[in-house]
């Protein structure tokens, strides 16, 4: 009888430890970016020049905020691109606009382009938290995985970010 009680206690302890490990896996990791701030989406910057992306599903445009380049790898200015991602409701698209200065993100705007109602809800959460998660960070250090509870929208953001980085590269 004592052996059965010890086995049951050991099983409960192991189950509890597994549950704790599972919960820890659901929490943010060092590679994830989470936040809950504003998106800086009040307004749209005008575009004086544009660069097309070869991708058929997204476009990229760049506006040089000044004539000087930053001291780093990327041109200073505001750059925009669409990024797509797959959700349970189908293919979704967001538009990302980043203002870059000295290889750092100075401002970000994210807008829904196409989304089903459920995806749009998650995109709004993402939009509400992305600014505080990335503004002030080096563009090459960005690894957006989960923002304000939205994990799939980050895939569209990262797709747009890849195009923006290519458009903003100093030649």
What would you say about this model in short?
With 171 residues, the protein is of the alpha+beta class. The protein is built from three helices and four strands; from the N terminus they run αββββαα. A hairpin with a 2-residue loop joins strand 3 (90-101) and strand 4.
Give your account of this protein's structure.
It is a single chain. The chain has three helices and four strands; from the N terminus they run αββββαα. The chain is α+β, with helices and mostly antiparallel strands and 171 residues long. The protein starts with a helix and ends with a helix. It folds into two domains: 1-30; 60-168. It comes from Frondihabitans australicus. Residues 74-89 have a biased composition (Polar residues). Keywords: Signal. Residues 28-73 have a biased composition (Low complexity).
Q: Note the total helix count.
A: 3
Rg measurement, Å: 21 Å
Compressed to H and E, one letter per element, the order equals HEEEEHH
Low-confidence stretches: 14-70
Overall shape: globular
Q: Roughly what fraction of the amino acids lie in strands?
A: 15-25%
Could you tell me how far the N terminus lies from the C terminus, measured between alpha carbons in angstroms? Answer: 77 Å
Secondary-structure content class:
alpha+beta
Counting DSSP E segments of at least 2 residues, the number of strands comes to 4
Query: Helical percent range?
Result: 25-40%
pLDDT averaged residue by residue: 71
Question: How do the strands of the widest beta sheet line up side by side?
Answer: 1-2-3-4
Q: What profile does the largest beta sheet have? A: 4 strands, antiparallel
What's the number of domains?
Answer: 2
């Amino acid at each position: 009888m004592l052996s059965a009680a010890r086995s049951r206690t050991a099983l409960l302890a192991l189950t509890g430890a597994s549950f704790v490990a599972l919960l820890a896996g659901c929490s943010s990791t060092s590679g994830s970016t989470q936040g809950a701030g504003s998106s800086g989406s009040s307004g749209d910057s005008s575009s004086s020049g544009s660069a097309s992306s070869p991708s058929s599903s997204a476009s990229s445009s760049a506006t040089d905020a000044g004539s000087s380049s930053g001291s780093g790898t990327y041109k200073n200015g505001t750059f925009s691109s669409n990024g797509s991602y797959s959700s349970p409701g189908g293919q979704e698209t967001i538009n990302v606009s980043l203002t870059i200065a000295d290889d750092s993100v100075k401002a970000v705007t994210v807008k829904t382009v196409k989304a089903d109602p459920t995806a749009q809800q998650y995109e709004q959460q993402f939009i509400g938290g992305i600014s505080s998660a990335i503004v002030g960070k080096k563009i090459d250090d960005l690894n957006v995985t989960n923002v304000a509870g939205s994990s799939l929208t980050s895939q569209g953001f990262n797709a747009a970010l890849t195009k923006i980085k290519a458009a903003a590269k100093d030649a």
